[in-house]
Write a structure and sequence with these properties.
Shape: rod-shaped
Number of strands: 8
Strand content: 5-15%
Helix content: 40-55%
Number of helices: 8
Distance between the termini: 83 Å
Radius of gyration: 50 Å
Strand order of the largest sheet: 5-4-8-6-7
Structural class: alpha+beta
Largest sheet: 5 strands, mixed
Order of helices and strands: HHHHEEHEHHEEHEEE
């Protein structure tokens, strides 16, 4: 009979060790069901540690002895009924209840319908417990996924910040190379011009000596004459400015800032983002109409973009 009861419990999905422990402690399917229901939330390790060397159980006490007449005792403290004196004593040792009385009511065993209902109730509770564990696992997976996504976003933000800084460094290096190239070309041009002028003056001097006349005098410098004749109010060329003033219209308001003319548009965009908190995708000048786009034009300096000595830009 115990083997059949164990098979029923195993078919319900209970662990073999837990089912064997329930049958051993109860001595029958009814007691095993009650024991499993009372201990369903306890881990198997705790049940092993709590198991006494003798036949011990959490529900009814020792089974009826052969030949013992069935009778009923009731615990006035909790209302539980027992078939034998031994069972009542066992209950008292577990609960410390001491108020017992005899009862003429005989404890009837579970009917087949009651057993089926008990089994169905245990199946339902077992399914609910497993569903709860599954829900907990899903919530844990969701939290882990959120942590992973947050970590990925922070990593992407760091990479994007590093990429922008590298772009600014590359733009600054290209600007320095271009300035050095322009300066070298200008030195070569001036050298060629000076050599040409020297050869011209030498040729005119030799010609004047052959003709017996005084050599021509070098022409007076034109720059001082132009400077003295120029109006004091004349404006400086754009190349003479070292700083430019920008009026910036952002989504949150208007800003006025000054930058060195060699500052790149990427550096201007970074300064705007730090002050306004809005990301900068483009800078637009209305007169003359110019649109400077991130990733395409932000490597230019303010001087190269023609925004010297001042400009008004719309930030988007």
């Amino acid at each position: 009979m115990a083997s059949s009861d164990l098979s029923v419990l195993l078919d319900m999905g209970f662990e073999q060790e837990r089912a064997e422990m329930a049958v051993k402690k109860s001595g029958g399917l009814q007691g095993a069901l009650e024991w499993l229901e009372a201990n369903q939330d306890k881990p198997i390790e705790q049940l092993r540690d709590a198991a006494p060397p003798d036949n011990d159980e959490d529900g009814e006490g020792p089974a009826l002895k052969p030949g013992e007449t069935a009778r009923s005792l009731v615990c006035n403290d909790c209302g539980k009924k027992f078939r034998s004196q031994a069972q009542a004593e066992f209950h008292a040792s577990k609960t410390e209840h001491v108020d017992f009385a005899e009862s003429t009511e005989e404890i009837a065993p579970l009917t087949e319908e009651e057993k089926k209902a008990k089994l169905e109730d245990l199946r339902r509770k077992l399914a609910e417990k497993r569903a709860g564990n599954s829900t907990t696992d899903k919530e844990m997976q969701k939290r882990n996924e959120e942590i992973r996504r947050k970590s990925t976003k922070e990593t992407q933000d760091i990479k994007e910040d590093l990429r922008k800084k590298e772009q600014m460094k590359e733009a600054a290096a290209k600007r320095r190379e271009k300035q050095a190239e322009i300066a070298a070309k200008e030195r070569i041009r001036l050298k060629i011009k000076a050599d040409q002028e020297e050869r011209r003056l030498k040729a005119e001097k030799e010609k004047a000596e052959r003709e017996g006349r005084a050599p021509p005098q070098p022409p007076a410098a034109a720059v001082p004459v132009a400077t003295t004749s120029a109006s004091p109010a004349s404006s400086k060329p754009a190349s003479a400015y070292t700083e430019t003033r920008l009026r910036l219209q952002t989504p949150s308001g208007s800003l006025q800032k000054s930058f060195p003319v060699q500052t790149t548009l990427a550096e201007v965009a970074t300064a705007i983002e730090d002050e306004s908190g809005h990301p900068v995708q483009s800078l637009t000048q209305n007169f003359p109409r110019k649109v400077f786009t991130q990733g395409i034009d932000f490597g230019q300096s303010l001087k190269e973009a023609g925004l010297v000595p001042s400009a008004a830009l719309i930030v988007k």
